[in-house]
Each structure stands twice: as C-alpha cells, then as structure tokens.
Design goal:
Radius of gyration: 19 Å
Strand content: under 5%
Distance between the termini: 59 Å
Shape: extended
Number of helices: 8
Largest sheet: none
C-alpha cells in the first residue's frame, strides 16, 4: 500500500497533467496540501522539479547542480510530503486514498506543483525571461498568418 502511494506522489510532483475530475475527498486533500505549505515549501518543490528535469541528457549541460544538492532537495521534498500526508493532512489523505485511490495524491500534488510554478512566474525577472523570446518572432509571418494572406 505504501509503495503505490509514494510512487503516486513522486510521479505527480513532476507536474504530470492533472487528473481530469476530482472527487470531494481529493478536492479536500488538494486544499489541505495547498493550505499547509509555505512559500518556501513551494519554492523548494520548484527547485526539486528543476533539478530533477536536469537529469535529461539534453538538459543536463544547463545545470550545475551537484549530487549533494540533488540529495538535499530529495530529502527536503520527502520531508515536505511526509509532513503533509502523515501529519498536516492525515485525515484528508486517508479519506481521499481510501475512497478515491492513488489518483487523489496525483491530483493534490499536481495542484501544489502548479501553485509553486505560479508563484515563481509572478516574479518580474522570471516573467521577463519567459517573454524575452518575443523579440525574435517574425512579425511579418504572424501578420500574414492572421490576415488570411
């Protein structure tokens, strides 16, 4: 029982698409998880996602995160998940898992991941970085595509 539960958490934190329909127990768990994390927790989650994604061979050269940093982020995320599921949201987690299954954890942690990304992208430097590519768009091609020519 615990292995599928932990796998569901690990998979979801990678920002997989959300479960399309959540039941009331899952909604309660997602709310509890969001309500019981701090901005620091969410930034730590975002750091973990960034470093985990940097394991991809095409992304790896862009990250200088050491094995020690990766291990520290893994441990920190494990502590956050453990606290949320076994303490802060224990009742909600138990009910969601027993009535709606593993998908409830995927949904709750996916919602937390989206919240973490939302917090990061509201930073002015991050927002500017996300829109920096626009200066390289071929505006003439866009105008032609939308003018029907």
């Amino acid at each position: 029982m615990i292995k599928p539960l932990l796998s569901a958490i690990a998979l979801t934190v990678t920002l997989m698409p959300a479960v399309s329909v959540a039941g009331p127990a899952t909604d309660a768990l997602a709310s509890c998880v969001a309500d019981n994390t701090t901005g620091k927790d969410r930034k730590d989650l975002a750091k973990w996602v960034f470093v985990a994604m940097s394991a991809h061979p095409e992304i790896k050269p862009l990250s200088k995160a050491s094995d020690a940093v990766k291990e520290s982020l893994d441990k920190n995320l494990a502590n956050i998940a453990t606290k949320l599921i076994t303490e802060s949201c224990r009742t909600e987690a138990h009910l969601a898992f027993s009535t709606e299954g593993e998908k409830s954890f995927e949904f709750a942690f996916n919602a937390l991941g989206r919240l973490a990304m939302q917090e990061l992208t509201t930073n002015p430097a991050v927002a500017a970085s996300f829109s920096n590519y626009v200066k390289y768009l071929d505006r003439a091609k866009f105008e032609a595509a939308f003018s029907g020519k």
